[in-house]
Amino acid sequence: MSHTLEVRVGKRRTLVIPKAVADMLGIREGSRLELRIEEGRIVLEKVPDAVELSLQGEKIVRVSLEELEAESIEHQKRYIGEK
Questions:
Q1: pLDDT digits (tens, 9 = 90+) for 45-57
Q2: DSSP the chain
Q3: Which residues, in sequence order, are CB contacts of 22 under 8 Å at separation 6+?
Q4: Bridge-partner residues for 1, per DSSP?
Q5: What whole-number distance in Å separates Cα of residue 42 and Cα of residue 25?
Q6: C-alpha–C-alpha distance, residues 9 and 12, integer Å
Q7: Domain total for the chain?
Q8: In this structure, what CATH number is given to the domain that contains residue 69?
Q9: For the segment 14-26, what is each residue's pLDDT rounded down to a tens digit?
Q10: Which domain holds residue 45?
Q11: How far is the CA of 68 from the CAs of 62, 72, 75, in angstroms?
Q12: Is the model's pLDDT at 40 over the cut of 80?
């Protein structure tokens, strides 16, 4: 999918991502973007957050709630120094 839009550089070299593009890519206030320079081009790529990955990311392993809770308890015990 390819879209081309022209945007203007504002004060302090800011760019505004058009609402339609932000909506299409799920970019909202507080979203993190990775900026790269590739062969004289600026490439922006959304960096997914942990919640987004857990809900929409590729699943590579299944963990039951019981396993998750047991692991959490073990980490908490180590953190507070209990055995």
A1: 998 877 777 777 7
A2: ----------GGG-----HHHHHHHT--TT-EEEEEEETTEEEEEEE--HHHHHHHSPP-----HHHHHHHHHHHHHHHHT--
A3: 28
A4: none
A5: 17
A6: 8
A7: 1
A8: 2.10.260
A9: 999 999 999 999 8
A10: 11-80
A11: 10, 6, 11
A12: yes
